[in-house]
Amino acid sequence: MQSLLKREHQELETDDAANDPLFAAVKYISRTKIDIKDALVSFALFRDNAGRFWPSQNTQFYVTNYLENFRQPSRNWPYSYLKALTTQKFAKVVVENEPDLAVKLRIAHKVD
Questions:
Q1: From first to last of its 112 residues, what are the pLDDT tens digits of the chain?
Q2: pTM reported for the whole predicted model
Q3: Burial 42-77 (b: 16+ CB within 10 A, else e)
């Protein structure tokens, strides 16, 4: 039983972003969420007359693919897409797809 727990603990350690080969050039820092202002500007969201936030034609392809998994904004829930772009999970998507933007947004910093 202890060996099984040890193995699970080792697997959890290897899942850490710092040990992932994908993050060889970029490393996470403590702030892993994106500010709302940064999300609006960096990912080209626009607001319609009902106050809902939608991706525009200038929004990056990986962002629109990510947002397909979330509920579409409505008058009752206008911030569903905006809130999805401020999560830690989306921060990891940004680091995978645009490491330079992740550094600019202070989600990550370059490893020397």
A1: 445 444 444 444 444 444 555 555 555 554 567 888 888 888 888 899 999 999 988 889 999 999 999 999 999 999 999 999 988 888 888 888 888 888 888 887 776 6
A2: 0.68
A3: bbebeeeeeebbebeeebbeebeebbeeeeebeeee
CA dihedral defined by 86, 91, 93, 98, rounded to 10 degrees? 110
The number of beta carbons lying within 10 Å of the beta carbon of residue 26 is 20
Q: Is 80 exposed, middle or buried (0-12, 13-18, 19+ CB in 10 A)?
A: middle
